[in-house]
Amino acid sequence: MAGKGMRAVLQRSYGSADTLQLRTVDRPAVGANEVLVEVHAAGVDRGTWHLMTGMPYLVRFAGFGLTKPKQAIPGLDVAGRVAAVGTGVTRFAPGDEVFGIATGAFAEYAVASEHKLAHKPSIATFEQAGVLAVSGITALQALTDVGKLRAGQSVLIIGASGGVGTYAVQLAKALGAEVTGVAGTAKLDLVRSIGADHIVDYTREDYLDGDRRYDLIVDIGGRNALRRLRRALTPTGTLVIVGGEGGGRVAGGVGRQLRAVLRSPTVKQRLTTFISKEHHAVMERLAEFVKSGDVVPAVGQRFSLEDTAAAMAALQAGATSGKTVIVVRGSGTRADA
Ligand SMILES: NC(=O)c1ccc[n+]([C@@H]2O[C@H](COP(=O)([O-])OP(=O)(O)OC[C@H]3O[C@@H](n4cnc5c(N)ncnc54)[C@H](OP(=O)(O)O)[C@@H]3O)[C@@H](O)[C@H]2O)c1
Fold it and tell me: Which candidate in 90, 156, 198, 230 could, as Cys together with 214 as Cys, close a disulfide (CB 3.0–4.6 Å)?
């Protein structure tokens, strides 16, 4: 497969969405434990935006390229058909429908490690599966492995209308929790439609005033101070900090996560954070929720590969709801030879 051409979005320097350009390049070659995916849909997420801008600088020091991105084609979330497999791949064969996390998903073909791919649930469209992995596995781990959610508990999801949040709301409901979702005015209907029991508009209400207390807070947006978050937790409740935009140019909002981890051993509440593990085992757990109908990816805006820069700009402007998808091949379209 390597050597044949494909259309791909290229990013030769860190910067805004204007740095993205559609070009024709060689298809990538697969290594022994890698899979070449014929991309049908690719998801847009905050992680990809950080890798595009190189901000905060921590991203650059984390090995993604000090002065320019090491990976010239952006894009992580992917869904498509297996086009070729490396010699060591045992779980996939050409033709399989897959979803997961790739390297360079904003292209007609992308390579993924075998352990970062799972079989696509047949109930899901490529567009839905293309926005599933990155945010879905983060939400699942936040609630279960890290948050230790139990049925009957009350959960506050701050940032319920976004990529991670729309999965967190649906998964928490499926796990038997009473769910309160926090979002901005324009997206409250979305949060209601995906099953939240209660919705809060962060532009109008102080949902952390302590009037209502939660067994678990999943903190995805807004970067509230630790002190305020603790006020809305039960005396032995758990805070899971997933992320939050803004903060300094060097480390972003990471100081809040560090303070939570340092504070936790000194209080009865559990204050924690995590970095999502990108492994097929958690993708397969997530896929079960999709198969059962408990989780339906909240696909928001759709863009073509040519319009990837506009998709990234919309994400940065906060103009997206749920997950934005880049539709690389229309459903049912045969791959190029
Ligand atoms: N720990 C990990 O492994 C991991 C994995 C994935 C993502 N993340 C991080 O998690 C964060 C969210 O990612 P995402 O993909 O869900 O982003 P997103 O799609 O942009 O969603 C952001 C959410 O935050 C809400 N929000 C914005 N300002 C707020 C405020 N002042 N108060 C309360 N909520 C506010 C937004 O609500 P409206 O749009 O309704 O205003 C939206 O629901 C990012 O920082 C990302 O880097 C971490």
Answer: 156
Query: What pTM does this model have?
Result: 0.95
Residue 121 CB–ligand 1 contact under 6 Å: no
Q: How far apart are CA 235 and CA 126, in angstroms?
A: 43
Per-range mean pLDDT, top range of 56-60, 63-67, 178-182: 178-182
The reply to whether ligand 1 has any atom less than 6 angstroms from the CB of 163 is yes
The whole-number pLDDT of residue 334 equals 32
Which letter does DSSP use for residue 177 in this model? -
Architecture of the domain delimited by 138-273: 3-Layer(aba) Sandwich (3.40)
- Residue 318 CA: nearest ligand 1 atom is 39
Question: In the chain, where are the structural domains located?
Answer: 5-132+297-327, 138-273
Instruction: Tell me the CATH number of domain 5-132+297-327, given options 3.40.50.300, 1.10.1530.10, 3.90.180.10, 3.90.79.10.
Output: 3.90.180.10
- pLDDT of 243: 87
Q: Which distant-in-sequence residues (6+ apart) come within 8 Å of 182 by Cβ?
A: 156, 157, 158, 159, 160, 199, 200, 201, 202, 207, 221, 222
Residue bearing the CA closest to ligand 1, atom 30: 222
Q: Is the CB of 9 under 6 A from ligand 1?
A: no
pLDDT computed for residue 332 by the predictor: 37
CA of 199 to the centre of ligand 1 (A): 16
Instruction: Flag whether pLDDT at 69 surpasses 90.
Output: no
